[in-house]
Write a structure and sequence with these properties.
single chain; 141 residues; alpha/beta; five-stranded mixed β-sheet; 4 helices
Length: 141
């Protein structure tokens, strides 16, 4: 039998995009990226604003939100942000093959990641609000 060389190309089912093409110049220096598994209505946005304000982070100026059901996945190393909150989203959205327990801080590629329940569940549950606060209060300057 002759040896043969087979050439083939593999395509990832969810090829990451260059996230910098999705960011304006002002957004390239964001502090916190929040990735949600649902749309962010005014009530849920208000909750996020309150939580982040308590740790001296301006939601409008210092955060960027993505909806995992709409936005493409991307590599965490492509962003300048140092902190990520995954709300109801698995780390594989950031092309990380790791299993993170919820409400614990993890340092991955010199970036901090917290995985939580979906924001709508947190909004309706005082215990989950406390767990989120306990996880991010160390960010307070």
């Amino acid at each position: 039998m002759e040896n043969s060389l087979l050439d083939f190309v593999l395509f990832a089912p969810n090829e990451p995009v260059d996230v910098n093409t999705m960011l304006s110049d002002e957004e390239k220096d964001i502090k916190v990226v929040i990735i949600l598994n649902e749309a962010l209505d005014e009530n849920l946005k208000s909750l996020l604003i309150q939580i982040l304000k308590a740790v001296n982070i301006d939601f409008e100026k210092e955060t960027k939100t993505y909806n995992s059901t709409i936005d493409s996945n991307f590599y965490i190393k492509d962003l300048n942000a140092k902190k990520y909150i995954l709300m109801g989203v698995n780390p594989d959205f950031l092309n990380l093959n790791i299993n993170l327990p919820k409400y614990h801080i993890f340092n991955v590629h010199k970036q901090i990641i917290i995985k939580t329940d979906p924001i709508s569940e947190i909004n309706n549950n005082q215990m989950l609000k406390k767990q989120l606060w306990d996880a991010i209060k160390v960010w307070k300057i």
